[in-house]
């Protein structure tokens, strides 16, 4: 796979941010990638997804990763080498990995990355590398959201931004668990949102909370806010219900005993059993990866511009 002897560092091309700012701070750099340590693997990355968190990292920077900061959370590729103590995976195996971008060595948008083996699973059958790299972060966010919601079969769940990729994953998994789902969508996207698992689909727009209340007069038991509606979504939730923000949440007073449980997906990147569940859902066709565009590393600025413009249905992907 490489001409590098096992246990040696190698040089990799990577997308990097020279500092907080606009697309002008994006560079392609060469950097050294160390060999895998105990419990780690080194992956030759073939595809890495662009997530909204990458846009935030570029705009705001990170105290944990000084410039040049390498973004990226989702990767797919082949295992180049394995550290001591790893027996579940093998060199040459096609894999999917999830990476903490806010770490000194950076994230997934690099030709080679070193990650804990617990954050790596075999790639689902019949997927391209581009498709496979879109699964992990959204899937883990959906699973963590539902774990925090703590709902029982038959309880109600609202999902804002119902046509988005995270909402799709959350709907599929929630439906499997017997929850009643209400989500929003534009009229032309309503049928796909129903197919993900939504029992009721309401029009996307400023009347979301009121529309949910018309369908569930007492309010829903929990709400996953992928559209970042924040307090505007609260009227949809019953007294004492659960609000699940998937973006940063600043503490503030909350009405009617609603419980706010921020979804911090980095906390579950080593939940191997959850990654395996996502592989099962993908291989059985319940989760369908969506690639919205493919870009070379040198085209990352153009990809960021597309992501920031909004309306992307699926994930933009960088190919190495």
Automatic annotation (TrEMBL):
<dbReference type="InterPro" id="IPR020843">
    <property type="entry name" value="ER"/>
</dbReference>
<dbReference type="InterPro" id="IPR052585">
    <property type="entry name" value="Lipid_raft_assoc_Zn_ADH"/>
</dbReference>
<dbReference type="Pfam" id="PF08240">
    <property type="entry name" value="ADH_N"/>
</dbReference>
<dbReference type="InterPro" id="IPR036291">
    <property type="entry name" value="NAD(P)-bd_dom_sf"/>
</dbReference>
<dbReference type="InterPro" id="IPR011032">
    <property type="entry name" value="GroES-like_sf"/>
</dbReference>
<dbReference type="InterPro" id="IPR013154">
    <property type="entry name" value="ADH-like_N"/>
</dbReference>
<dbReference type="GO" id="GO:0016491">
    <property type="term" value="F:oxidoreductase activity"/>
</dbReference>
<feature type="domain" description="Enoyl reductase (ER)">
    <location>
        <begin position="21"/>
        <end position="318"/>
    </location>
</feature>
<dbReference type="Pfam" id="PF13602">
    <property type="entry name" value="ADH_zinc_N_2"/>
</dbReference>
<protein>
    <submittedName>
        <fullName>NADP-dependent oxidoreductase</fullName>
    </submittedName>
</protein>
């Amino acid at each position: 796979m490489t001409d590098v002897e096992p246990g040696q560092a190698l040089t990799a091309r990577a997308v990097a941010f020279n500092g907080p700012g606009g697309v002008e701070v994006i560079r392609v750099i060469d950097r050294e990638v160390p060999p895998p340590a105990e419990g780690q693997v080194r992956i030759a990355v073939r595809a890495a997804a662009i997530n909204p968190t990458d846009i935030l990292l570029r705009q705001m920077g990170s105290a944990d990763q000084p410039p040049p900061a390498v973004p990226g959370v989702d990767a797919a590729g082949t295992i180049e080498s394995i550290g001591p103590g790893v027996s579940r995976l093998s060199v040459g195996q096609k894999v999917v990995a999830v990476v903490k971008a806010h770490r000194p060595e950076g994230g997934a948008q690099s030709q080679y990355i070193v990650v804990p083996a617990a954050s790596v699973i075999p790639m689902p059958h019949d997927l391209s590398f581009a498709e496979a790299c879109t699964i992990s972060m959204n899937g883990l966010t959906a699973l963590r959201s539902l774990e925090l919601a703590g709902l029982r079969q038959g309880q109600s769940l609202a999902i804002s931004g119902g046509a988005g990729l995270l909402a799709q994953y959350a709907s599929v998994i929630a439906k499997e668990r017997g929850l009643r789902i209400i989500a929003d969508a534009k009229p032309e996207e309503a049928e796909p949102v129903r197919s993900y698992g939504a029992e009721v689909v309401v029009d996307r727009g400023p009347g979301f909370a009121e529309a949910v209340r018309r369908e569930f007069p007492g309010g829903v038991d929990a709400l996953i806010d992928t559209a970042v509606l924040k307090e505007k979504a609260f009227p949809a939730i019953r007294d004492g219900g659960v609000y699940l923000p998937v973006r940063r949440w600043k503490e503030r007073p909350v009405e009617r005993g609603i419980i706010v449980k921020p979804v911090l997906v980095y906390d579950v990147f080593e939940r191997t059993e959850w990654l395996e569940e996502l592989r099962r859902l993908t291989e059985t066709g319940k989760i369908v990866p969506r690639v919205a565009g493919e870009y070379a590393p040198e085209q990352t600025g153009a990809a960021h511009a597309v992501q920031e413009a909004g309306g992307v249905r699926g994930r933009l992907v960088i190919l190495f």
